[in-house]
Write a structure and sequence with these properties.
This protein is of the alpha/beta class. The chain has one domain (5-245): TIM Barrel (Alpha-Beta Barrel), CATH 3.20.20. It is built from 10 helices and 12 strands. Helix 2 (63-72) links the parallel strand 4 (47-51) and strand 5. Helix 1 runs parallel beside helix 2 (63-72). It is globular and about 45 Å long.
């Protein structure tokens, strides 16, 4: 059995890490360089860096901040925000990313997934889907959760896998920042039959939520969270100790 991964997420706006609720009400948290360095040292398995306003502002990702973060991080680094072309992939990878996350850009041009997978390998292409319940279904949202595409999320995720995405991050807008637990129903409905690794994002509020996630949904490969780690509400070392005690395979910190 592969070890379950614990992944902190840095939502970056104007060069600072921010956090909100349901993708709104963003508050300043810290320097992404300081936080990235901290997580690299304290047992995180990977780190995700999102330039969260790049797509909505119609600009490229800020590579200056990314380069500085990458220089301090010694765990796999996934980067997203404003990724619209293969040139964007190239620029971000050269800035220190190990994997590139695509969202709005892939919705506009699905072939971007296929082309990137062919050039860099599927393991480098992460499909990030921001999903919310709408009229009894699940819709894909873009532009930082601001715009409802009307696209059926299950069909889009399946297509992304077929086009060559090597991993999926499912971001539940409904549970983002609410801290009442991961969106188990959404994960089950959309991801239970996928063949690629699934990362659950949105809703973690305590250690028990991770235990519940991995025990109830064994197909989920990783749990991603932000504020509970940023504010010290949950320490990654303590979280992994509890998961191991519950019989869940994790990579233990030294």
């Amino acid at each position: 059995m592969l070890a379950k991964r614990i992944i902190p997420c840095l939502d970056v706006k104007d060069g600072r890490v921010v956090k909100g609720k349901n993708f709104k009400g963003l508050a300043d948290v810290a320097s992404p360089v300081d936080l990235g360095s901290f997580y690299s040292k304290c047992g995180a398995d990977e780190l995700v860096f999102y330039d969260i306003t790049a797509s909505s502002e119609g600009r490229k990702l800020f590579t200056e901040v990314l380069t500085e973060v990458a220089s301090k991080v010694f765990i796999p680094l996934t980067v997203g925000g404003g990724i619209n072309t293969l040139d964007d992939f190239d620029r971000v990878l050269k800035s220190g990313a190990d994997k590139v996350s695509v969202n709005s850009g892939a919705v506009r041009d699905p072939q971007l997934i296929c082309e990137a997978a062919k050039r860099y390998g599927s393991q480098c292409v992460v499909l990030s889907a921001d999903v919310k319940r709408v009229d009894g279904g699940y819709h894909v949202f873009v532009r930082g959760g601001r715009e409802d595409t009307g696209i059926d999320a299950k069909e889009w995720i399946k297509r992304g896998q077929e086009l060559g995405a090597g991993e999926l991050v499912l971001n539940s807008i409904d549970t983002d920042g609410v801290k009442k637990g991961f969106d188990l129903q959404m994960l089950t409905d959309l991801c239970s039959d996928l063949k690629i690794p699934v990362i659950a994002s949105g809703g973690a509020g305590n250690v028990e939520h991770f235990t519940e996630l991995f025990k109830k949904l064994p197909f989920v490969d990783a749990g991603l969270a932000a504020s509970i780690f940023h504010y010290g509400e949950v320490k990654i070392e303590d979280l992994k100790r509890v998961l191991a005690d519950e019989g869940i395979e994790v990579r233990r910190t030294k």
